[in-house]
Specification:
Structural class: mainly alpha
Mean pLDDT: 80
Number of strands: 0
Number of helices: 9
CATH topology of the largest domain: Rna Polymerase Sigma Factor, Chain: A
Shape: globular
Low-confidence stretches: 103-116, 193-198
């Protein structure tokens, strides 16, 4: 794993290369971050053509705004925040809900864990298909939180920075999204042998 200082140094070198117009530098930046941007925008929007246009808009804005990046986060987090903002505004223009009602209300700091094990579901191909369908049925923000945290393996702090929300709100969103996902998943599959869930990473 790349440590924080090494990642910061790589970010600075790449940004400097883009700013000075080095051939291929911006293409390298896009290649490095396109997976995160696509995951984030597609999970929010779920429309391939809109997603392609919005991803292009994200990187155009990154190119225009790169001089404003102040290294107070990683470059990936900063780009992710731009992607999330663009996708959210796209949905707001279409007057589509981003979350379920009351989905961002506060929960006790030590909310009880649910018993849905994402890792176990992902280990079985048939269950994985049901899991993807269940995730797709969630509102944009919950399914994006799950994607960033579990598939892109970002920390709660990184997800919070991308979404410009407090870490407590992101933990709340994760808890509620997992609970809702479990309910939808079990409605589709019936009782399963999946045991009590656990977080494979420490937030």
């Amino acid at each position: 794993m790349i440590d924080k200082d090494d990642r910061s140094a790589r970010d600075r070198a790449l940004i400097e290369a883009v700013r000075t117009g080095r051939p291929g530098a911006f293409a390298a930046l896009v290649e490095q971050h396109q997976r995160l941007v696509w995951h984030l925008v597609y999970r929010m929007v779920q429309h391939p053509e809109d997603c392609r246009e919005l991803c292009q808009e994200v990187f155009l804005r990154v190119h225009r705004k790169l001089d404003q990046f102040r290294h107070d986060s990683t470059l990936g987090t900063w780009i992710g925040r731009i992607a999330f903002t663009i996708a959210a505004r796209h949905l707001q223009r279409k007057r589509l809900p981003l979350v379920e009602p009351d989905n961002e209300s506060d929960l006790p700091a030590e909310a009880a864990p649910d018993d849905f094990d994402l890792a176990a579901a992902c280990a079985d191909r048939e269950l994985l298909d049901h899991l993807h369908a269940a995730m797709d049925s969630l509102p944009p923000v919950p399914r994006t939180v799950l994607t960033l945290y579990y598939l892109d393996e970002l920390s709660v702090a990184e997800v919070a920075a991308i979404m410009d929300r407090p870490e407590g709100t992101v933990k709340n969103l994760l808890f509620r999204a997992r609970s809702r996902l479990r309910s939808i998943f079990q409605d589709r599959t019936g009782p399963t042998e999946i045991g009590e869930g656990h977080d494979p990473r420490q937030a």
